[in-house]
Amino acid sequence: MSSQDNLSKEATITQLFSDAERIINQGEYAKALKSIDKILNLNPNDFDALHCKVIIFLKLGKYQNALDLVMKNFSEDQLPLERVYCLYRLNKFSEGAELLRKYRTAGNNDSGLRHLEAQMAYKLEDYNASLETYYNLLQETDSKEDTYNDILTNFNAAKAALLFSGGKLKEKYAMADSVNTYELAYNYACTYLGKKDFKKVEKLLITARNICRKSLSDDDYSEEEIEQELGTINVQLAYLYQLQGRTAEAINLYQSVLKFKGIDMTVSAIASNNLVAAKKDSELFDSARKLKVASSNTLDTKLFRIQRRIIAMNEALLSLYMHKYTVCQDVSRRLLETYPENDDLYLILASIPYRQKKTAKAIQELQEFIKLKPNSLSINFALIQLQLLQSNPTSALETLENHLSSIKDDSEKYRPGYVGLLVWLYEKVGKPENSVQALDQAGTFWKSGVMSEESRSILKQTAAFKLKTNRYHEAAQDYEQLVKGDPLDIQALAGLVASYSQYDINLAEKYESSLPDLSVQTEIDIESLEKVVPGVKKSYIKKADAKTIEKQTKTTPKKKKKRKPLLPKNYDPDVPPDPQRWIPKHERSSNKKEKGKRKQQLMKGSQGVAVAGGGIGGTGSANIAGRSVSNVSSSETTVTSQPEQPAPTPTSKPKGGSDKNKKKKKKGGNKW
């Protein structure tokens, strides 16, 4: 190839690079890819063109294509950032972390790689490593740089994740709150949520929501896009309401988020799961549909392990509520293989026979589970609860004693809750001396150290029990120690006075003066006191005053006019009504009974003989044959309508009257 051809080729490549740069600045990456391909057709080994093609693939979200291009055309020490980023975006976190260790060992301290290292540790749920890397990056980055807020945002996210997982933050990680962006405000809120500071969480989340709406509105985002971005903040706010017991507000907020179809899959899954948890055992079929969305396989790499576990557990619980016991058992046992450390799954398995009214079997299963996990607090206390429900305090006491014997740490063993339950069970089984011994042991342990809330609680329990069992001198000694520690403790002062009053009145009077005076109310409103008596019906309370006031306030309504009675058309006010008008006519005294031969039958002959006027013509009945009868005259078929006769006025019959003297009516004549 001549030098002139080479110059022409170089000029063409230069022009294509210029075109690609212009198109990339316009954001049209797919179109720029065509220009880069033309360059590679001219020079397949052009390093800049290949590098540019990798970047374009990353911008287009084609991470596998970008990784394949890097692996094929570049050595391992070339493009380390792009190579690791591809692995990160393809959710190959372990492989990416291993590659990062190689680069760091080789001395590559690029800030971009270190940022990726922190993100990779975060995804692998190694929050301490992630925090340490972010902390070091923050120390090395100027707060005025654009990347500073991004690092700070991710740093706070890692802090929140560590707190949610049960970890503890180092003091050096404590930094002043910064709410320059809604992402920062949101992550600070998550950090305080891990610390259970709910008031601060709500304030920060509302601040984040306001900043988000304002900043996106200023950037001309549509309302739908703004709501999609607000979804994460609203779901976290709803979760806060749920923790505070504001269930109705939480449900409304979850439902408002799920209305938008373009919401992020992760946000939608968490909102669906939390909504199911808020509704508990109501609307089960709707809950099953929502949980199916939340447990999609496509979310496995986007949700943390604890989130996946909670969603899977809710699936098992939903099956339990829907009485699908076999499904619940299968799901729970499968989850135990993945999450063997989760004690709640054992409780779900024991709940299956319990809900089937098989308490004895549930107790037996819990006893088997305790053999596998003897130190489990939740399993042991679930067994104690069932044994108490079976009215078996002896077995419950044995379970508690076995559990306490497995605890090596005395500060854990002598916790007030444990000691209180142990004393109560000893009383139930009739062993008061064991109660005293348990209280003494706990008291001795807590007295040996600095007086704390736990030690004061134990000492109060011990003193109250000694006072109850008439050991007044010992009770007074314990109460004295409590009063010395806190002279304003009214409960301890009252116990000390009660103890001294049993054997030394002077000392009792001395400390009694330290007790606050009872506030006695001199003026008592008897009527208001009667109204608030609990458990008593208030029907005895006089309501005359209330009725009088009500009459005064209400205006007297106008009296409605009485409706005139409806009278028959032939009613004559001068003629008294028949007193027997309600009795059937044939039972009235005015009815004349027929004598002699019975009336001739209206129809003679065999069945089916035609009767004039019967079922034909003017009666309106249909002709069975479907045609008229020609030999029936019109006079026979025509019915003359007549006005209805008024009811005859009843008169009494004269004595001795005969039917023969009565005139016969003329046939066919008009009675009027």
Would you kindly provide a written description of the structure presented here, covering whatever features stand out?
One of its GO terms (cellular component) is endoplasmic reticulum. Keywords: Cytoplasm, Endoplasmic reticulum, Ribonucleoprotein, Signal recognition particle, TPR repeat. Component of the signal recognition particle (SRP) complex, a ribonucleoprotein complex that mediates the cotranslational targeting of secretory and membrane proteins to the endoplasmic reticulum (ER). The chain has 672 residues and is an all-alpha fold. It contains 31 helices and no strands. It has helices at residues 3-25, 29-42, 47-59, 63-73, 80-89, 93-105, 111-123, 127-140, 146-164, 182-194, 198-218, 223-243, 247-258, 265-279, 284-294, 305-321, 325-338, 344-355, 359-372, 377-389, 393-405, 410-413, 416-428, 432-447, 453-468, 472-485, 490-500, 505-512, 526-531, 544-553, 634-637. The longest helix is centred in the first third of the chain and has 23 residues, at 3-25. Residues 540-544 and 597-672 have low confidence and may be disordered.
Summed up, what is this model?
This is Signal recognition particle subunit SRP72. With 672 residues, the protein is mainly alpha-helical.
| Gross geometry | extended
Count the DSSP helices: 31
Uncertain runs are 540-544, 597-672
Number of strands: 0
- Report the structural category: mainly alpha
Gyration radius, in Å: 47 Å
The major beta sheet can be summarized as: none
**What is the mean predicted local confidence, pLDDT?**
79
Q: Percent of residues in helical segments?
A: 55-70%
Family: Belongs to the SRP72 family.
Biased composition (Basic and acidic residues): 584-593
GO molecular function, one term: 7S RNA binding
Keywords: Cytoplasm, Endoplasmic reticulum, Ribonucleoprotein, Signal recognition particle, TPR repeat
